[in-house]
Amino acid sequence: MNALTSFFRDEQGQDLIEYTLLLAFVCLASAALFISAGGDVAGIWTATNSQLAAANTSAS
Predict the structure, then answer these.
(1) Distance from C-alpha of 26 to C-alpha of 22, rounded to nearest angstrom
(2) How far is CA 24 from CA 12, 13, 19, 52, 59, in A?
């Protein structure tokens, strides 16, 4: 019984678990940000590509 109570009171791995959860939260937040920004980047890329095509046509 003493071994079981000492197991539940042991806090040796608590920091590792907290840092792992924090890292997982940061990774999920970053992934959500990159996914939501993907459409904006595609729009900018399309606009830039069409402007370059128009400039190439007028320069020729």
Answers:
(1) 6
(2) 20, 17, 9, 41, 51
Burial state string for 21-37 with b = 16 or more CB within 10 A and e = fewer than 16: eeeeeeeeeeeeeeeee
pLDDT of res. 25 = 97
- The C-alpha atoms of residue 12 and residue 26 are separated, in whole angstroms, by 23
At 33, the amino acid letter reads L
- Round to whole Å and give the CA distance between 53 and 50: 5
Give this prediction's pTM. 0.53
